[in-house]
Amino acid sequence: MDARREERAARALELKHLRYLVAIVDTGSFTDAARELGTSQAAVSRTLAALEKLLGVRLLHRTSRSVLPTPAGTQALARARVLLAGVDELVHEAATGHTRLHIGHAWSAFGRHTTEFQRRWREEHPDTELRLIRRNSPTGGLAEGLCDLAVIRAPVDLTPWAHALIGHEVRYVALASDDPWARRRGVRLAEIPGRTLALDRRTGTTTLDLWPSDHRPEVEYTGDIDDWLAAIATGRCVGLTPQATAAQYRRDGIVYRPLRDADPVPIHLIWRAHDPHPAVHAAIALAAQLYRNGSGASASVGARR
């Protein structure tokens, strides 16, 4: 399909086409689909034919006994379900107000405060459902449109977003449980260059700027939290991470020891400055309160753009 035809098809495509396709497959026949949709079998057939013409592919195999999707139909059906679910959710939220708040994060949400945050939110805001989303992206899913608010620990540019500093977390060293350092009470920053350091350069909080340019550790780059933990569990790497990781990722074969002499990691919440979710500021206030009340954590909220 050339670009012009694709554009024409996209403009002509209607949700009705997708709903009819899903109904045919789910009910197993044009007759049952028509009954479910409250229309005629002829209307179902015409709509399906129009969709196939728009896309330029056959979507269904029809026999006297069954209706089955073609390979192209299987792909179209999967996309149709996602689109229709999104539309239904949009309509519901528009009709009932903002009933759900999505908070994104790359590795961990509010660390040891996560459970308390969820419990308090349910008690204080029963009409707004809370969903936590893990997305391995620098903005925790905010730039991708997956959440309304995101917890940020990595050193990213905050300029495009409204943001608030809610607290700090001390750093820990992640080690294999049989590592010689695991018997110690703490590790100093200057000792790390003698080891290989596991780093997630996309969403991790650790950068080589923690050390002088002439005294830096060897690095093994990892893709996400699971890869990072797996590399450390083998014993070939160590990792540096905020307290939240130590609280939320207790794994067999991994131990955490305090890093004695490094600056703590600032914890920010970021959100879209234009048209923010109505519950954003309530979430910021609750998170800041939990960090402020937590031992060893300092919090100051100063939302700015």
**By CATH's scheme, which homologous superfamily of the largest domain applies?**
Periplasmic binding protein-like II
Please, what is the average pLDDT?
88
Give the structural class: alpha/beta
Number of E strands = 12
Q: Unreliable runs, pLDDT <50, ≥5 residues?
A: 295-305
Q: Distance between the terminal alpha carbons, to the nearest Å?
A: 44 Å
The CATH architecture of the largest domain can be given as 3-Layer(aba) Sandwich
Q: Strand sequence of the main sheet, in spatial order?
A: 4-3-5-12-6
**CATH class of the largest domain, please?**
Alpha Beta
Please estimate the helix content: 25-40%
3D shape: elongated
Number of helices: 9
Question: What do you see in this structure?
Answer:
The protein is of the alpha/beta class and 305 residues long. It folds into 3 domains: 3-96, Winged helix-like DNA-binding domain superfamily/Winged helix DNA-binding domain (Arc Repressor Mutant, subunit A, Orthogonal Bundle); 100-168 and 265-293, D-Maltodextrin-Binding Protein, domain 2 (3-Layer(aba) Sandwich); 171-258, 3-Layer(aba) Sandwich (D-Maltodextrin-Binding Protein, domain 2), CATH 3.40.190.10. Helices cover 37% and strands 20% of the residues. The strands form 4 sheets. The chain has a 5-stranded mixed β-sheet, with helices on one face. Helix 6 (114-124) links the parallel strand 3 and strand 4 (129-134). Helix 2 crosses helix 5 (71-96). It is elongated, with a radius of gyration of 26 Å. 32% of the residues are buried. The model is unreliable at 295-305 (pLDDT under 50).
